[in-house]
Amino acid sequence: MKFKTAIFFAFLSVLSCAVFAQDKVTLRTADKWNLAALYNPSQNGKYVILLHDLGSKKEEYPSFSRALDKAGFGYLALDLRGHGQSTNINTYDKFEKTGVDNEFNKMTRDVDAAINYLRGKGASEGNIFILGAGLGANVAAKSLPFHPKLGGVVLLTPSLKNRDVLTMVGIKNFKGPVFIGVSSTDRKQLMEASFIRNAAYLASGKGKVTFMTAYNLKGVDMLDRYLTQEVLQWLRTPQLPEVLPDAVSFEEETYYETPEAAPKKDELPAMTMGDVLKSLD
User: Fold this and answer.
1) What is the Cα–Cα distance from 281 to 277, expressed in whole angstroms?
2) Which neighbouring-strand residues pair with 74?
3) CATH number for 50
4) Residues of the chain with pLDDT under 50
């Protein structure tokens, strides 16, 4: 009986893998890096580019990528240059840690290659989102000026500076929706993320910035434990709908023999709340 049960669960596991099929693809950057990536097609027309943290790789998002697939979103998870199976002359631990033109800053070209790949699959830029954790969040933010029409960006535990990759320039000039997730127990990180949120709010305006905290986790761990459903809902409706004001204006419908006989708008008597209540009697 135990043997049959084991075979049954093994069959379910194989079936699950068959249903959840992602393609291994290779992207080519403008400066000749070959990037390994995992691609899953979209069912609803929207795609998410997944950028991992420093020292990690494209497989950093197993739970969230399954959630994306189940919700109908496509995705492209990258091995950023120097990480995982992406190949060129060096690995990330040999990159210069400082300098505005170091290889970490050049990771914006990795994002360019990802967006170009999804365009080749028929995706419009407005249906492409970027989600990054840690270093990946900073790279996502720095990429925004080059792709101002993106559908939005998700920054998980971003910082003002990571390996000299700055977030603020991109955020201050991006008009689209922004989702920020950060741990509330790391005071430095929370403060920096708050600065980023304020800059995003000033650039994007009311209803376009979502800021959420998680108690004790960061990056992908925070996403998997606390924020998966919130991010999925945000991807569906990244901008809050317009909230109509409470005040309602009333104008009595009156017909006049000629347009000239009608009073000017500023001559119409103001209707008070008492007038409104009387009209309801």
Assistant:
1) 7
2) 47
3) 3.40.50.1820
4) 1-19, 244, 247-256, 265, 268, 276-277, 279-281
